[in-house]
Write a structure and sequence with these properties.
alpha/beta, TIM Barrel, Lyase, Ornithine Decarboxylase, Chain A, domain 1, seven-stranded parallel beta sheet, six-stranded mixed beta sheet, 10 helices, 19 strands, 28% helix, 21% strand, binds pyridoxal-5'-phosphate, EC 5.1.1.1
Length: 338
């Protein structure tokens, strides 16, 4: 019942991704509470498996995580050094000259890393900015220099090669560990691996790592089942009307729990031991209705996320990506860690 999270599958996926980039150290990206799955538990298990480098988005996430990890774990903060932040025990990834000067003034001698923009135009220093502080920044001894790929989930996309070339050009002659690849970049091959890889979604069972072991199962308790006659409708807005006599089950979760309203009559199903029961009518805040006529009995629970309908299938039905399905899973589920 509830949200089952297979920690050993996360560890196995991390190991599999690490082994695809044998020349690099494998970090683990645990931002947004480990993509909604619980950063403390996930990071502790990955530490146990040998991970020593972790990435979060915000200093506040890093401070929470610090309490779950031994001293020798390095917790890197992707947003860098914003004003007024407590970065003690953390490694900010500095994204601009402004962040660099702020950080060096306030945290002299403390570890830091640098991010360069190789074409995504989201975070990191551009070539001219980087050139202006390069000597001073290198003299200060960054832990690593990184950049991020915008299109790594599309292997044929020309941006991959151009970002790789830009990153190489900007880091030429830097005797510092380099990092470019997230999950998608690991799959692009060894040119993209450098010294440190940063897998996230692949560890959590999502595309583009198609060989990932599934991590999440979401089982929802059935509250009530009823017979609906032809011509009767189901749910808000009466968007679905029965054309024949059917049985409708109502389960206890809805869009407040990350079951997107866009899944209403989208083709997505709830599963009973591997058998699909189409979601019918609107997804409401706390409830979802599904047609269980094809089943012999009434199950105690129905699965939204399972081997037959993994996160990326659910995402397709909802018009989004697996990342958003995971990070939207709410706090109301009973969570079980396997
Ligand atoms: C989120 C993120 C990652 C992890 O990306 P995945 O696609 O989930 O593997 C790595 N690096 C940076 C900079 C990120 O923002």
């Amino acid at each position: 019942m509830g949200l089952q999270i297979d920690i050993q599958a996360i560890v196995a996926n991390w190991r599999a991704l690490a082994s695809m980039a044998p020349t690099a150290r494998a970090a683990a990206v645990v931002k947004a509470d480990a993509y909604g799955l619980g950063a403390g538990r996930v990071a502790a298990a990955l530490y146990e498996a040998g991970a020593r480098d972790f990435f979060v988005a915000l200093a506040r996430e890093g401070q929470v995580l610090r309490g779950h990890l031994p001293e020798d774990a390095r917790i890197n903060v992707l947003s860098g050094h914003m004003e007024g932040q407590d970065l003690s025990g953390l490694v900010p990834v500095l994204n601009s000259t402004e962040q660099f000067f702020r950080d060096r003034a306030m945290r002299p001698g403390q570890p830091f890393a640098l991010q360069l923009d190789s074409g995504m135009n989201r975070l990191g220093m551009e070539a001219a900015e980087w050139a202006s502080i390069r000597d001073e920044a290198l003299a200060a001894g960054p832990a690593f220099i990184m950049s991020h790929l915008a299109c790594a989930d599309e292997p044929e996309h020309p941006a991959n090669a151009s970002q790789l070339a830009a990153f190489r050009a900007m880091t030429e002659g830097c005797d510092v560990p380099l990092s470019l690849a997230a999950t998608g970049g690991i799959l692009l091959g060894k040119d993209y691996h450098f010294d440190l890889v940063r897998p996230g979604i692949g560890m959590y069972g999502g595309l583009p790592f198609a060989q990932a072991r599934p991590v999440v199962r979401l089982s929802l308790p059935v509250i009530q089942t009823r017979v609906v006659e032809p011509g009767e409708f189901v749910g808000y807005g009466s968007t679905w009307t029965a054309t024949e006599r059917c049985r409708i089950a109502t389960v206890a979760a809805g869009y407040a729990d990350g079951i997107f309203r866009a899944l209403s009559s989208s083709g997505a199903s709830l599963y009973a031991d591997g058998r699909p029961c189409p979601i019918v009518g609107r997804v409401s805040m706390d409830l979802v209705t599904a047609d269980v006529s094809a089943l012999d009995g009434v199950p105690a629970e129905l699965d939204l996320i399972c081997d037959e309908q993994p996160i990326d299938r659910v995402a397709d039905y909802a018009g989004t990506i697996g990342y958003e399905i995971l990070t939207s899973l709410g706090q109301r589920y009973e969570r079980t860690y396997l």
